[in-house]
């Protein structure tokens, strides 16, 4: 995970089901706030998924997309909310970059 200041973080022993937002917060990743606690209601967990991983991670659903639209100024085609992406063995090695704050 690349943080908002360009630092890189690698996590091992990631338990299945933990979200990217939780991982980021637990490990003090700059730029991951998670203000709403994972409720898909704040977009302070916004990340850009590495394009090589996009097919595995998948696109946001309508609710998540609506929230991402609130930060449209910094949204990209590979945007996801970190609280909505849960780790699984299939995502071992996943690379994401924390998006800059909106506005
Ligand atoms: Fe609020 Fe993800 S933590 S939208």
UniProtKB/TrEMBL annotation:
GO biological process: P450-containing electron transport chain
Cofactor(s) the protein requires to work: [2Fe-2S] cluster
Keyword Transport tagged: no
InterPro entries attached to this UniProt entry: 2Fe-2S_ferredoxin-like_sf, 2Fe-2S_ferredoxin-type, Adrenodoxin-like, Beta-grasp_dom_sf
Domain 2Fe-2S ferredoxin-type: start-end pairs: 1-102
Molecular functions per Gene Ontology: 2 iron, 2 sulfur cluster binding; electron transfer activity; metal ion binding
Keywords: 2Fe-2S, Iron, Iron-sulfur, Metal-binding
Similarity remark: Belongs to the adrenodoxin/putidaredoxin family.
Protein name: 2Fe-2S ferredoxin
Organism listed in the record: Novosphingobium guangzhouense
